[in-house]
Amino acid sequence: MKKNIDVFDFNEEDELAESASGKLLEKFANPSSSISPALQCRRIQSCESLLLFFFFLLYLHTVIVLAEA
Fold first, then answer.
1. How far is CA 10 from CA 13, 17, 18, 23, 51, in A?
2. Domain spans of the chain?
3. Residue 39 belongs to what H/E stretch?
4. Rounded Cα distance, 23 and 17, in Å
5. For the chain, how long is the longest CA-to-CA vector?
6. Which chain regions cross the lipid bilayer (predicted)?
7. What are the φ/ψ torsions at residue 35 (nearest 5 degrees)?
């Protein structure tokens, strides 16, 4: 069975929708390019500290559960 493949032809109305969606997506763009490298480094270190704390709590929970078993 042979299928017809058509090419979509954009019109002015489609271009307006593309422009509007692009402007909307700009609101959710990553603002990190305007943040200083020192602040970015502190944010990364804070995230690392939180992750280490989370894994430590997970480890303690595992030890307690295994000790009770």
1. 8, 11, 10, 19, 48
2. 12-68
3. helix 37-68
4. 10
5. 69
6. 50-67
7. -95, 140
